[in-house]
Design goal:
The complex is a heterotrimer of chains A (232), B (547) and C (333). By secondary structure, chain B is mainly alpha-helical. Chain B has a single domain, classed as Cytochrome c oxidase-like, subunit I domain (Cytochrome C Oxidase, Chain A, Up-down Bundle). Chain B is built from 16 helices and no strands. Chain B has helices spanning 21-25, 30-58, 69-105, 113-135, 149-153, 158-185, 198-230, 243-277, 284-297, 313-341, 350-373, 375-381, 385-415, 421-448, 462-492, 532-537. Chain B is globular and about 70 Å long. The two termini of chain B are 29 Å apart. Chain C is built from 8 helices and 12 strands. Chain C has a 5-stranded mixed beta sheet with strand order 3-2-1-5-8, with helices on one face. In chain C, strands 4-10-9-6-7 form a 5-stranded mixed beta sheet. A two-stranded antiparallel ribbon of chain C has the order 11-12. The radius of gyration of chain C is 27 Å and the shape is elongated. Chain C starts with 13 loop residues before the first helix and ends in an 11-residue tail after the last helix. The chains are: A mainly alpha (232), B mainly alpha (547), C alpha+beta (333). Chains B and C meet through helix 3, helix 8, helix 9, helix 10 and helix 11 of B and helix 1, helix 2, strand 7 and strand 9 of C.
């Protein structure tokens, strides 16, 4: 008889010949899904690249209106959450229940922390009228320049493109974070019920992959959006 | 039951194992999901076909007198969107791929059966959204929805149509994901990569395109929706945006998409020709590699849709050169299929007639691609009916003929019934004739200068348009016939034996129709693909089983 | 061919012959290939029809054959590519000293203005034997200027100029189509190219005009106050525009760009995008203040300052005094 760490529906197991095959399939499936996510975000990065080259001054000016300290904090939050995810995977693999539950809870908390800080940032953008659309304003903002070069003001339309990309990119990322938190709440539930064991912890493994990916997307977003040109 | 001859008790199979709507709508059996898809895509095919009919009727006369201009613009847009996103892209992978991929590799199901069902539901949701969009006003941008027309000028339901395609796109991505994992991880013992049927290679290559390309059009749709809703300037030049960026992002997916549409059909043709010539496909490895090459090179040529769009001369030169590279693997396939016929033992059953039709029409369609890749000629013929003829030759003459051929070939397996062979051969002939009559005149129309998406045109183009419409009527009859006799066969067709064609392939070792788990015990493969020599050596007399 | 049933478009430009030759070459190549495949398939299908007791012969493949039928087609394809590239390159390189016609496309009509000042709607008169360069932009969505008889097509974009050229060879009236779907009346956005003998064309030309486009541009240049900063000496707050067009311009960030039509256009609509070395970014934008036609006139004027013997910009008063006809007004049509 096969080892029964699995409490899944027998029909699901039935089409696999053995647990290792099922594990490998799940893992490969998640990696492929992540590659589709790379292409999904890739289109946005492509648009960002083109417009940053075209309107570098406006992008720099707009970037400087972001709160890089909050962004940096969020980066630290996510990196810590990736640590807690790794700990959770380890705990599941070594049947350390307390560590598993604790790590999952911490991950969820850190996820909410990220979203909370993001919400604060978005609120700030609302107040400053930097949300693209009818109420967008970006008047009289100087484009940062090297010393000795003449000053000029940013073109609001071009700055609006920056903010459009900012909101779509970080918004899409935040959406993925929300989905990630949902996945981890579910993982917490099944871990609580004892369904994650050294023999079977595939959901934890692939959930972890997903979370790490969302983290990596942020690692790219942060410098591109927040750290363009800090010279004043 | 007092009948003259004793009726055998119907063996349990995937069709009769459970009854009831619930057992179908909540199934995870890849074969049932394939049938769910079959119903849905057939519905959309006839919707898209209906739009085509009105278009061709309008084009009978030079004046715009059947429908209004806006209506016509919506008709060709919806024809394109429905046919591409809701018929061609899913068709073969979702119907024949879903049904056959697990069986051909000796597996009980796909790697992720529930995700397979989710794929179908996403397709249905996208389809309902699209239907709703069409019924409440529709879209008039052309299926290519170029900016800034689609973002800042049209008043039609772009966002809704875009979201419908977005949702359907995820259906496509999940199908591709499922196939790749299945083919990698669930092959039966002994089923090495070099023993895989070419149908599987074709679907593997298709799946690569689906997973890597579709997300790009998805994000493009998101950007268009955001721009349109918030009046942004990502693609609007008045606000600093670039309409060409849209075109690049759009075609980055939409060119590989055409390979999603044709590769599976090529896989089917390989299976059919091998069976009805009774021999292994000539140059198996080359055909397999060519599928992968097409998938890879297909991602490098997108801007050949933009030669007159305002890209630089140097970009145009590069993309033209690359486009010729992707023509080579396709040509190689045609040569290999032809060479397979040499010293074969050939029968002209309906599936083979469709395969012949494919060979002829795909050759012509593919060759006209050379015209379009040629910069000097493309300037004249792009955005004219020449392009329309080219892609219909490939998509209808190629992909659709392959699909029909495959449906006939595997119908006994899927339904357990035999279709009427005489009617099937007739239908193949009608489709072939109707198709050429419809679309060949369009090559001429394009070269003499009739642009695309025109509902009124100069008088001198009328004769060719009338020919084309006449052909379309014939073609329509050709498509209705299989609908009718397939349905008929489900009730009145002769029961099919397990292997009516004496074909090679694991699917023919299962019952017709198969049981829910396909195989009683896991097969162990010790033979190469297309082992027709072995198969035929075991039969002294060729007993025709169909007809 | 047949009047009511043409199977081939008119050949009315120098490019047409080249494109047709290439097309015919491709028809021959494709025809041969089609014949080859069809013959092989039909012959094999008949010759190797299933016969009792004659099994199929299993042939794995033949690498030499595969290489042959990969490399030879590739060679043919490369030849086609090269020939096509040459034709294309010629078609996208307008000859120097082409006569210029400015085209503004809008839903759903073509507005054309000759450099000499004639305006046309949905029609373009040209003489045979002269190189004509079209400088085109759109007021709204993407259109495409397509003349089948010239084998010429170029998309017309909002926000920038695209260029096409031709030399007509045969008098006649030829279709002009819009070839990029642009909305409701896309199929109604058609017109005619009227190719005339030189004498007829001159006669048509002299039939009333507002003066050359560059003169209109000169007036707008003065009226909008451009002349205050862009003086014909080095004292102005803006660069002297004499001799600028067509030459490289050094920008203050170190880049060098060529002052073509798109550069002039961008400088008027988005002056902050490229600052000339040594100048301050004080030029205001004229986005929304100038129409496409006025932009064309201004571009034509700046171009004229690069022609040998061109006088410098005049002050506003002097320009108005010199003008022959009243301004057409600065509203968008």
């Amino acid at each position: 008889m096969a080892v029964h760490g699995e409490t899944h529906n027998p029909a699901l197991l039935h089409h696999f010949a053995e647990p290792q095959q099922q594990r490998d399939a799940a893992s490969l499936g998640m990696w492929i899904f992540l590659s589709t996510e790379v292409m999904f975000f890739g289109g946005l990065f492509c648009a960002y690249l083109i417009y940053r080259l075209k309107f570098f001054g406006e992008f720099a000016a707009a970037s400087q209106t972001l709160n890089w300290q909050l962004g940096m904090t969020n980066t630290a939050v996510l990196i810590c959450s990736s640590l807690t995810v790794v700990l959770a995977v380890y705990a599941a693999q070594h049947a350390k229940r307390a560590m598993l539950l604790g790590s999952l809870v911490l991950t969820i908390i850190l996820g909410f922390a990220f979203l909370g800080i993001k919400a604060v940032e978005y609120a700030e953008k609302f107040e400053k009228h930097h949300v693209p659309g009818p109420s967008f304003q970006f008047e009289n903002v100087k484009v940062p320049t090297a010393p000795g070069q003449p000053e000029r003001f940013a073109n609001p339309s071009h700055a609006q493109i920056y903010f459009a990309l900012y909101f779509v990119m970080t918004g899409l990322h935040a959406l993925h974070m929300i989905i990630g938190i949902g996945i981890f709440v579910w993982l917490l539930l099944i871990a609580w019920k004892g369904r994650l064991t050294p023999e079977y912890n595939t959901p934890m493994e692939i959930g972890g992959l997903y979370w790490h990916f969302v983290d990596i997307v942020w690692i790219y977003l942060f410098p591109l959006l927040y750290l363009i040109d800090l010279r004043k | 039951m007092a009948t003259a001859t004793a009726q055998p008790v119907e063996r349990e199979n995937y069709l009769n194992k459970h009854y009831g709507v619930g057992s179908w709508l909540l199934t995870t059996d890849h074969k049932r999901i394939a049938l769910l898809y079959l119903l849905s895509i057939t519905l959309f095919f006839f919707i898209g076909g209906f739009f085509a009919l009105i278009i061709r009727l309008e084009l009978l006369t030079p004046a715009g007198d059947l429908v209004q201009a806006d209506t016509y613009n919506k008709l060709f847009t919806m024809h394109g969107m429905v046919m591409i996103f809701f018929f061609l892209i899913p068709s073969i992978p979702a119907v024949l791929g879903n049904f056959l991929v697990p069986i051909m590799i000796g597996a009980k199901d796909l790697a992720f059966p529930r995700i397979n069902l989710l794929s179908w539901y996403l397709y249905i949701i996208g389809g309902i959204m699209m239907l709703h969009c069409m019924l409440t006003g529709g879209v008039d941008t052309g299926w290519t929805f170029y900016t800034p027309f689609s973002t800042a000028f049209t008043n039609t339901k772009i966002v809704e149509a875009g979201l419908a395609i977005f949702v359907a796109g995820f259906s496509s991505i999940l199908t591709g994901l499922n196939f790749i994992v299945t083919i990698h991880r669930m092959r039966a013992p002994g089923m090495t990569w070099s023993r895989l049927p070419l149908f599987i290679w074709a679907h593997y290559a298709t799946s690569i395109i689906q997973i890597l390309g579709t997300p790009v059009v998805a994000i493009t749709i998101v950007l268009v929706a955001v721009e349109r809703t918030l009046h942004l300037g990502i693609f609007d030049p008045k606000l600093g945006g670039d309409p060409l960026l849209f075109q690049h992002l759009f075609w980055f997916y939409s060119h590989p998409a055409v390979y999603i549409m044709i590769l599976p059909s090529m896989g089917i043709v390989s299976e059919i020709i091998a069976c009805f010539a009774r021999k292994r496909i000539f140059g198996y490895s080359f055909v397999a590699i060519s599928s992968i090459s097409i998938a890879v090179f297909g991602f490098l040529v997108w801007a050949h849709h933009m030669f007159v769009a305002g890209i630089s001369v140097y970009a145009a030169l590069l993309f033209s050169l690359l486009s010729y590279s992707v023509a080579v693997p396709s040509a190689v396939k045609v040569f290999n299929w032809t060479a397979t016929l040499y010293k074969g033992s050939i029968r002209y059953d309906a599936p083979m007639l469709y395969a012949f039709g494919f060979l002829g029409l795909f050759t012509i369609g593919g060759l006209t691609g050379l015209f379009l890749a040629c910069l000097g000629i493309d300037v004249h013929v792009t955005d004219t009916y020449f392009v329309v003829a080219h892609f219909h030759y490939i998509m209808v003459g190629g992909a659709l003929m392959g699909y029909l051929g495959g449906m006939h070939f595997w119908w006994p397996k899927i339904s357990g019934k035999l279709y009427p062979e005489g009617w099937a051969r007739l239908a193949a002939l009608i489709v072939f004739i109707g198709f050429n009559l419809t679309f060949f005149p369009q090559f001429i129309l394009g070269y003499v200068g009739m642009p695309r998406r025109y509902y009124q045109y100069p008088q001198e183009f009328q004769v060719l348009n009338v020919l084309s419409t006449a052909g379309a009527t014939v073609l329509g009859v050709g498509y209705l016939l299989p609908m009718i006799y397939f349905l008929w066969s489900m009730r009145y067709g002769k029961p099919a034996p397990d292997n009516p064609w004496n074909a090679a392939g694991l699917e023919w070792k299962t019952a017709s129709p198969p049981t829910t788990y396909n195989f009683e015990e896991e097969p162990v493969v010790t033979w190469e693909a297309y082992n027709y020599e072995e198969i035929d050596a075991g039969h002294k007399e060729e007993v025709p089983v169909v007809g | 061919m047949f009047d009511n049933f043409p199977l081939w478009p008119d050949r009315a430009s120098t490019a047409a012959g080249n494109v047709d030759a290439l097309f015919i070459f491709l028809i021959i190549v494709s025809g041969l290939m089609t014949l080859l495949i069809f013959t092989a398939v039909i012959y094999f299908a008949a010759r190797y029809r299933r016969r009792q007791g004659v099994p199929a012969e299993q042939i794995e493949g033949s690498t030499p054959l595969e290489l042959t039928w990969s490399i030879i087609p590739l060679g043919v394809f490369l030849a086609i590519f090269f020939w096509g590239a040459v034709v294309y390159f010629k078609g996208r390189t307008p000859p120097r000293d082409s006569t210029e016609v400015y085209v503004v496309a809008k839903q759903w009509m073509w507005k054309l203005e000759h450099a000499e000042g004639q305006r046309e709607i949905n029609e373009l008169h040209v003489p045979i034997g002269r190189d004509v360069k079209l400088i085109m932009t759109s007021q709204d969505v993407i259109h495409s200027f397509y003349v089948p008889a010239f084998r010429m097509k170029q998309d017309v974009l909002p926000g920038r100029y695209t260029v096409a050229w031709f030399r007509a060879t045969k008098p006649g009236i030829y279709h002009l189509f819009c070839a990029e779907y642009c909305g409701t009346q896309h199929s109604g956005m058609i017109g005619s190219i009227v190719v005339q003998e030189p004498a007829q064309y001159e006669a048509w030309m002299s039939g009333g005009t507002t003066g050359p486009l560059s003169a209109t541009g000169e007036k707008i240049f003065a009226e909008l106050g451009c002349v205050t900063c862009h003086r014909s000496d080095t004292q102005g707050r803006g660069p002297n525009l004499q001799g600028v067009f067509g030459k490289p311009v050094l920008l203050e960030d170190g880049r060098t760009v060529t002052a073509d039509e798109n550069y002039i256009r961008e400088s008027i609509l988005d002056p902050g995008a490229k600052i000339v070395n040594g100048f301050k970014p004080v030029m205001p934008t004229f986005q929304g203040i100038v129409s496409e036609e006025q932009l064309n006139a201004l571009v034509a004027y700046v171009k004229s300052l690069s022609k040998p013997g061109a006088p410098g910009p005049k002050t506003a008063a002097a320009a108005t005094k010199d003008s022959k006809a009243p301004t057409k007004g600065s509203q968008v049509e």
